Amino acid sequence: MEIDQIINSIFPLPELSKLNLIQHISEVSHSKGFCLMEANKVIPYIYFLKKGIVRAYASTENNDITFWFGTEGEPVVSMKSYVDEKPGYESIELLEDCNFYVLETSKLKNLFNEDIYIANWGRKFAERELVKTEELIISRQYKTALERYKDLLKEKPYLLQRVQLGHIASYLGITQVSLSRIRAEIK
């Protein structure tokens, strides 16, 4: 996905503002398995996934808990670092070879002060991330594992071909054995 498409999917910008924003964005590639972000570190960048898939997870003593998958066109950001310039909670692992667009958070914040359209774009970006987080929390609190799996099949069926079942089970908040039972029940 091209950067102008990603920018417009967040919030359309006038052409001059978009060009001003794009001039501060560069491209970077990393291989499968690379840790793009580490928990407990300030991440001074916002990434936009051009190609590939990533997972966000938090580590406990016994395992990693996957709570988000990012695919083409999506922002990859530590909101705690973005908003407060404090260490984030999550680690981001590449599940495929990935290409990213990358923007330094400090440069974006400078652009907010210079261009009201970019400032509004940044507000819409943060609002969208908030809504995604809210939806995730509500799903985890009020839906059964079966309902969450059916939602995944409906909204992001391609994840089942691109992501290990262990990560899918973790994302759904269940064991792989429970995931196998759910999958058998649906077939």
Please provide a written account of the structure.
The chain has a 4-stranded antiparallel sheet with strand order 1-8-3-6. It has a 4-stranded antiparallel sheet with strand order 2-7-4-5. Helices cover 50% and strands 22% of the residues. The radius of gyration is 17 Å and the shape is elongated. Helix 4 (105-114) packs across helix 5. The protein has 187 residues and is of the alpha+beta class.
Key structural traits:
187 residues, elongated, four-stranded antiparallel β-sheet, 50% helix, single chain
Query: Taking strands numbered 1, 2, ... along the chain, how are they ordered across the largest sheet?
Result: 1-8-3-6
Helix content range of the residues, please? 40-55%
Which outline best applies? elongated
Structural class: alpha+beta
End-to-end distance, in Å? 33 Å
Q: What's the average pLDDT?
A: 95
SSE sequence, one letter per element: HHEEEEEEHEEHHHHHH
Beta-sheet strand percentage?
Answer: 15-25%
**How many alpha or pi helices?**
9
Radius of gyration: 17 Å
Residue stretches low in confidence (pLDDT < 50, at least 5 long) are none
